[in-house]
Design a protein that fits this description.
Layout (H helix, E strand, L loop, with lengths): L8 H10 L1 H7 L4 E13 L14 E11 L4 E15 L8 H5 L2 E16 L11 E14 L2 E3 L13 H10 L6 E14 L4 E12 L18 E13 L12
Antiparallel strand pairs: 1-2, 1-9, 2-3, 3-4, 4-5, 4-6, 5-7, 7-8, 8-9
């Protein structure tokens, strides 16, 4: 049986969990931890504007960690929590929206991993500089969709109306609770000093479902729903050379 000298355990622990010896050789770019505050914006059948449902926007929060893999590229993992919703009663034009009067809401939690490209070399001192970045990757969204058609004006529609027939189909369709999405976005980073930076970011999620709002056949079955987030953030950059593994003594 392979035995490991006890004197080596602190060194192996440090290398395993922090990978500092590898990072020091490959890149001087810092690992960073951050928090983002903002809002999720729903885009779909229940809003008249491509910009989405700002009238029902709720706050959201994200926690993230960013690990460099080169001077410009890094891997970012994040968890986010917030809410999405829409209410057709919030819009007076076109008038048929208040006649249909669909609404929905759902808490939204998300786990994401994206590849980030920073236009500024992250090994350099960028203090006082605003630099853009872009990213793309994959995520899982966790939803608990509550759809409501209780204010639907049945008297305004013929019994064979596509909307009424579609509503019957929608009400027996199960809404998704776990939804794969593709995050694609861009942001601006302002470097305050060597350890702190601020960001503002737009993060669009492309989805493969038309039931984020709970309705499809009775609304617009030809286009999937989606959502995006607008955030501001604060990051702390932890330089690898600020922590050193203990020397091995046999």
């Amino acid at each position: 049986m392979l035995t490991i000298p006890k004197k080596l355990l602190p060194l192996l622990f440090c290398i395993f969990f922090f990978h500092l010896s590898i990072d020091a050789q490959n890149s001087k770019a810092p690992i960073s931890f951050g928090i983002q505050l903002g809002t999720f914006i729903y885009q779909g059948d229940l809003v008249p504007s491509f910009a989405g449902s700002f009238r029902t926007a709720k706050p959201m929060i994200s926690l993230l960690v960013n690990k460099p893999i080169s001077n410009n590229f890094s891997l970012r993992g994040s968890i986010s929590a917030g809410q999405i919703s829409a209410d057709e009663n919030a819009y007076t034009s076109p008038a048929w929206r208040q006649t249909r009067a669909f609404n929905f809401n759902s808490p939204l939690s998300e786990m994401a991993a994206v590849m980030v490209f920073d236009f500024a070399d992250q090994t350099l001192d960028n203090t006082g500089r605003i630099s853009p970045y872009v990213f793309a990757g994959g995520a899982l969204s966790f939803l608990n969709i509550h759809r409501d058609w209780s204010k639907f004006n049945f008297a305004a529609f013929d019994s064979k109306s596509p909307i009424l027939v579609g509503l019957g189909q929608d009400t027996i369709r199960q809404t998704p609770s776990i939804l794969p999405v593709i995050p694609i976005g861009a942001g601006l980073k302002y470097t305050i000093n060597s350890h702190w930076s601020m960001t503002t970011e737009l993060n669009y999620r492309y989805s493969f479902s038309d039931y984020i709002d709970g309705f499809s056949k009775s609304a617009n079955p030809h286009a999937n729903d989606s959502y995006y987030s607008l955030t501001i953030g604060l990051n702390y950059h932890l330089y690898n050379n600020s922590i050193k593994c203990p020397p091995a003594k046999l």
